[in-house]
Amino acid sequence: MTSDPTGSGCEQMLELLSAGLDGALTFREREQVEAHAAVCESCRAEQARMSALEGELRRCEEPAPGELAANRARVLASLDREASRARGVAASRPRQGRRWWQMFLGGAWQPSMALALAVVLLAVVTVRRQGPAILPGAAGGVAAQAPSAESGLVLAGLPPPDEDGRAAAQSDREGVAMRLDAGAPGETTILWVMTNETK
Amino acid sequence: MDELEGLVERMRQDDRAAYEVLLDRFQPAVFRLAHRVTGNREDAWDVVQDVFLAVHTKRDELREVSRFRPWLYRMAYCRAVDMVRARGGRAAPAGDDFLASAAPASAGPTHVVEAAALTGEVGRALAALPERFREPLVLATHGDLTYEQIAGELGCPVGTVRSRIATARQLLRERLAAWFGVN
After folding, report:
1. For labelling alongside A137, which of A25, A100, A144, B179 has CA 20 to 30 A away?
2. Are residues B63 and B12 in the same domain?
3. What digits encode the pLDDT tens for the residues B111-141?
């Protein structure tokens, strides 16, 4: 190890030699390396050893053409599978994310559901105001009748309420179910209508 | 915007044809880098597959198209390192993998074995380097990235990258003194 008239020390040369292997020297630095190597045998030898090591370091395995083609096919097939899965999720997401009231806003059920909703809302409002009448049903069950003489609304087909005052049944309209939560006298009674979305 | 950046931009906009061009163009380089880190072909191909799937799924995370190559190679390096760790240790280049490539077929059997042994030693010495020295060195030698690009990916000054790479080479030289001589 030595110093040369340019003032470059051997320690500094190690970093410059390394950067030179990566083509990362400025023009001035290249001149500095050449000037130092011209007068420093030790650094010339080090430069030769680093070059030899670099050759080994950069040696790599080459991919075979068949491997490249196989991997290409694998990657693209994975992407296709992922895309199909994503499309499936996207298609099902609106159903999962819909709120109960959104069921009435679209599809073939729209007109009938809108009518049903209007009737039920009327019934619930009336029942909340005046209390329901639980009447004997035609098949031994009961019917919920909105006690408004004006509406004359009767939703039939409910079985007898259980001990908790609840009754539930399928409507004659497919996909529509009713549930009555009959409160004690003076308490709120709610009539629920639930539906499944159909396509 | 050059041709590569144009392809990357199209790929970011979900252009499948552009993605396939990038896949064809960069598969070999990613394989070479991954093989240098993992030390065997099977793991290297797993890394290549993971990386290109990630390129597709994470394409929105690439803010600047000009950084595609550093982004790609750094991802390849990290995945290769993860794979080696998941395997439970440092990469040890398999001698069999290197036998075919370490020496020309015309070389004698002794030369072939010696060349494979040297390549294996280089791989082991590289794997034994501290991570802060090994990563910039591999990105420079196998990713063909500039020091500025590496500094941008690692989030450190260019001078630090340059210094760490020089240190990495010196450590390799010391560990491989039996093959390359000493000062």
Report:
1. A100
2. yes
3. 667 777 888 889 899 999 999 999 999 999 9
Q: Are both B14 and B43 inside the same structural domain?
A: yes
Pick from B106, B127, B105: nearest CA to B40: B127
pTM: 0.65
Average pLDDT score over chain B:
87
Q: Are residues B23 and B68 in the same domain?
A: yes
pLDDT digits (tens, 9 = 90+) for B20-54: 999 999 999 999 999 999 988 999 999 999 999 99
What is the chain B residue with the closest CA to A60?
A: B32
Q: Does B27 touch chain A (CB under 8 A)?
A: yes
- Residues B135/B82, Cβ–Cβ less than 8 Å: no
For residue range B46-105, what is the model confidence (pLDDT) as tens digits? 999 999 999 999 998 988 999 999 999 999 999 999 999 988 865 555 444 544 454 455
Domain hosting B68: range is 1-90
C-beta separation of A60 from B35 below 8 A: yes
Interface pTM, i.e. ipTM: 0.84
Dist CA A1 CA A9 (whole Å): 8
CATH number, domain of B167, equals: 1.10.10.10
DSSP sequence for B11-80 = HHTT-HHHHHHHHHHHHHHHHHHHHHHH-SHHHHHHHHHHHHHHHHHTGGG---GGGHHHHHHHHHHHHH
Where does the pLDDT of residue B107 fall: very low under 50, low under 70, confident under 90, or very high at 90 and above? low
**Least Cα separation, residue A4 to chain B (angstroms):** 18
B 34-93 residues with CB < 8 A to A: 35-36, 41, 44-45, 48-49, 52-53, 56-57
